[in-house]
Amino acid sequence: MKLVVVTRTGNAVSWPNAVRVPDIEISATEIRRRVAAGLPIDFLTPPAVVEYIRRRGLWKAESPA
Fold this sequence. Notes:
The chain is mainly α. The chain has helices at about 30-35, 45-55. It has a domain at about 25-65. About 30% of the residues lie in helices and about 0% in strands.
């Protein structure tokens, strides 16, 4: 098994081999909110993630009963 450590905005990582990635101002909470609201997330996540969420119907707003 390989372990990958990536940096995250606002959190210091003291791991010499951590992967440095560009900071983006988006959170998982925001992605879930957008999915529930029916808004696109295509520009926020890789296509495979968008497809995974879509196929499984994750975080869709439930219809009022």
